[in-house]
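Team,

Forwarding the record for the chain on the shared tracking sheet. I've put the sequence and predicted structure together so nobody has to dig through attachments.
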Amino acid sequence: MTRIAKRVAIIGAGPSGLSAARAFLANTDFELVLYDSKPQVGGVWFYPDDEQQRASTAMYDSLETNLSKDIMSFNGFPFSDSVKQFPTRSQVQEYLIHFYETFVKNQNRARVQLNCTVELLQKNGDSWELCHSGSRSVEVFDFVVIANGHFDIPYVPTDIPGLGEWRKEDPSSLLHSKEFQSSEPFRGQKVVVVGNGSSGSDIANQISSVAEHVFHSVTEISKANWDENPIVTPVTKISQLRVHENRTVELQNGELLHDIDCIVWATGYMYHIPFLGSYQDEILGTQHARNPVSRLHGLWRQIVFSEDPTLAFSLLCKNVVPFPVAESQACLIAKIFCGAVDVPLMDSSARAMGNGKDYHSLVMPRDIEYCRDLQGILDSCGGLNDPFQPRRWDEQMAALRYQTAAAKNERTKLLVRRAMQLRQNGQAYCLE
């Protein structure tokens, strides 16, 4: 009697979806279908040729990674020697296309549907039913991996007095970092950049090449080092906006910034799974799947829905080394779907733990501890014998994690100097 292979839907063909496909193809006999709404694989790293379409991505023209190529690469698949230590966005996209062509494309058990938007995912009995824009028929799966990323719906604080009035008066002067593409539109302006993450610091530096002045609004001023860039001034968080009073931004320490032309919110993103038809309240904390949320609930190890372990999520974690984390999660998901790992049912206290937008944040060294936890689970259930295994977070890998942070700090100093050199020449920011 012929055994019918189990089917897995992977929603998203970015780094997490591709790493899941590689792990499944190597370590299971499952049949896979990958869905992605974009015309090319790569997920968030895909950067359209059309400038208007670029506004819908989290990428921008002169973006390079804040992680070295040595630590961010997939296991056994290094970046090319010609790629510099901190790759550009286009180099990362080329790397992901090469990864796809090497491990996923033309594989008999994998089908990839691009330009295809998943519209509804619904559990029916023991199966998952999936509807998408490419067909009127329903496709049926045994398992689902949601790998659609979390760089789609911008998060902007809503509790700042005067924000609504400013937005009504001059909406074009309020931007999220997702809308940022290059520094040229900010030439001669006084700009406030909000957010002390890597994108906030990078965008503030790039804008400084052409702006009259940039105020970098951060949580801790002491950590915002702009000594070598006199155009950028670190300031405290915003307490109020007064668009009708000389376009004034009032800070929490009482300082007033007048005649502000633009505010750029580099304040992160929300999680959005608009197609989820089952378990909305349990996972999203809302009965309306189209509502973006700050975190997901009920997930064991931030990966598998404990009430129904046929549903998994990839790379929800933030502030991690994404590619190696994604493949560690993928190998564990494969074990769970094969029945080699029992997922415990989470009690109410575990479900509520870590409420808030920082729940999924694993700032170093928490990311190292997290990966080692996943590795321990894999090792305990036969992972050492799997054909494909993720990168191991041993002492050498942990040391590389710390070293790349220090190396990026030195790299940032060079980028600041480049911004000032370009400014002296009257040029907008661009990478060498």
